[in-house]
Amino acid sequence: MLEGLFDLKRWELAFVHMDTFWDGFGVTLHVVVAGLALALALGTLLGVFSTTRSRILRGISRVYVEFYQNTPLPVQVLFMYMAGPQFLQAITGAPQPVRIAPFVLGTLGVGLYHAAYIAEVIRTGIEAVPRGQVEAAQSQGFSRIQTYAYIVLPQTFKIILPPLCNQALNLVKNTSVLALVAGGDLMYRSDNFVSLYGYLQGYIICCFMYFIICFPLAMLVQWLEKRSKARPRAKSIPGVTDVAAAAGKEA
After folding, report:
1. CA 71, CA 197: separation in Å to the nearest integer?
2. Distance between CA atoms of 14 and 201, rounded to whole angstroms?
3. Which residue has the higher pLDDT, 105 or 226?
4. Residue 183 and residue 176: Cα distance in Å, rounded?
5. What are phi and psi of 112, to 5 degrees?
6. Which three-class secondary structure state does DSSP give residue 23?
7. Is the dihedral of CA 74, 75, 76, 77 positive or negative?
């Protein structure tokens, strides 16, 4: 088995089918972009819900987060794949189950799943913003929505960039769950190649293509973490830093 990994004929056959792998790579990228957009939008909304004074909104956020964090993603995707068409049939009144496109299924699967984790990241970021800034904004006539839009959320996203990129990295890898429902993604195409020819080269190419997406994201996470730990340099403000420095010398 391992000797076959160095067989040039097997590699040649794998490279002949590279168009198939690249097609799967394209499907994976599309699902990543759409799923990440959904996860960010829904996760931000749920993160805001979890920090409001409304018990109902906090309850909705909590139930959603607990459900999606404590159930496996493959089970969620398979449930949508099997039960989704029947739900759509009941809602639309169609004569037969309404098929869900693999792209939509993958987007909903990874998007809804990672929205729960992003919601917790958003909540932590919002709680890190000083409460006084919220009170100051509201004292200046800002509504609660304006306070979140112009004061809280811009600062929140600066704080949570490293963990947010980590969630994007996990989302990329979790798109492989589409292979369970014949989603046409990279993992599915690799499975087909290996099943058809029995050559593990298909999985090696699959790993390399996932690496192409994930490695830059991992480097970005490390850079953002180093940047967030770096101490900002004090700026010289006339009349402020001068007085503080003089007071320090006198002491």
Report:
1. 35
2. 7
3. 105
4. 9
5. -65, -35
6. helix
7. positive
13's tokens: 């056959």
- Please answer whether residues 132 and 193 qualify as being in contact, where contact means their C-beta atoms are separated by less than 8 angstroms: no
Cβ atoms of 74 and 149 within 8 Å: the answer is no
Residue 57: the pLDDT is 93
Using alpha carbons, select from 113, 102, 107, 114 the residue that is nearest to residue 31: 107
Amino acid at 100: I
Q: How far is CA 60 from CA 50, 51, 173, 231, in A?
A: 8, 12, 28, 38
* Rg of the chain in Å (alpha carbons): 24
pLDDT single digits (tens) 202-234: 899 999 999 998 998 888 888 877 776 665 444
Tokens of 223: 């850079």
The DSSP call for residue 150 is I
pTM over 0.70: yes
Q: Which of 165, 17, 33, 48 is nearest to 111 (CA)?
A: 33
Q: Which residues contact 189 (CB under 8 A, 6 or more apart)?
A: 20, 21, 23, 24, 202, 206
Using an 8 Å Cβ cutoff, are 35 and 114 in contact?
A: yes
Q: Within 10 A of 159 (CB to CB), how many other CB atoms are there?
A: 18
- Phi-psi bin for 232: left (phi > 0), alpha (psi -120 to 50), beta? beta
The CB density around residue 65, as the number of other CB atoms within 10 Å, is: 22
The rounded distance, in Å, linking the Cα atoms of 79 and 59 is 24
